[in-house]
Amino acid sequence: xxxxxxxxxxxxxxxxxxxxxxxxxxxxxxxxxxxxxxxxxxxxxxxxxxxxxxxxxxxxxxxxxxxxxxxxxxxxxxxxxxxxxxxxxxxxxxxxxxxxxxxxxxxxxxxxxxxxxxxxxxxxxxxxxxxxxxxxxxxxxxxxxxxxxxxxxxxxxxxxxxxxxxxxxxxxxxxxxxxxxxxxxxxxxxxxxxxxxxxxxxxxxxxxxxxxxxxxxxxxxxxxxxxxxxxxxxxxxxxxxxxxxxxxxxxxxxxxxxxxxxxxxx
Length: 266
Ligand SMILES: C[S@@+](CC[C@H](N)C(=O)[O-])C[C@H]1O[C@@H](n2cnc3c(N)ncnc32)[C@H](O)[C@@H]1O
Hints:
The chain is α/β, with parallel strands linked by helices. It is about 40% helix and about 15% strand. A seven-stranded mixed sheet has the order 3-2-1-4-5-7-6.
């Protein structure tokens, strides 16, 4: 008897199931407003932007759409190399940061759009290249990828988290918490393949640990990862922090970012 072919995998449904298993709650825009207010965004993300821009191919690109642009870490340097950038974000705090940078540097070719992944983008022109950097933790990933793809005349490019930093699982064990890793870059890669695209995958270097992170900073990150911690648990996190300079996560508990680009005009 012939072995039947396996059933096709519904990556979109699996992604949604994975998010549910992680207890994922979509962040409201206000959560990002608060983060934008923390100064020094640029300085803390310089290594990331350098690695991203080194891989971004702007050959033949005149217009760029940057979805989830934040305060313009990428929109602004990209604008120096193209005619026009459309920078879209649902956080007014992030866009205020972008507008301040535009005014400070006298940038004339970046248009901020206060829109979310799910708003109507009809007024936003389609661009040669559409990017979404670290901005795709959304409930419906396939819909977001399709939107980005449909708005890109030539190419699209995203970054997506790979796995957690070394130490996250150790800390979970120390706290006796069950910890389910968030969906990683395998999901968008498979969804793009199912969309008939040919994703090219590269990996950014491992993000630099913030060796200056203090015990309280690590406690705050542990709360982000595992939920509320009582006093005893907070003390255990501080003791773990004190045991080694490697016991710090810094800005992101992500080990490294996958850089995924594809042609949309094929
Ligand atoms: C980690 S920051 C990345 C900012 C910038 N792309 C970068 O790589 O430096 C994520 C950004 O995505 C935005 N974002 C998150 N969810 C969004 C949504 N549903 N619609 C629009 N923007 C969103 C946030 O406001 C934030 O500015």
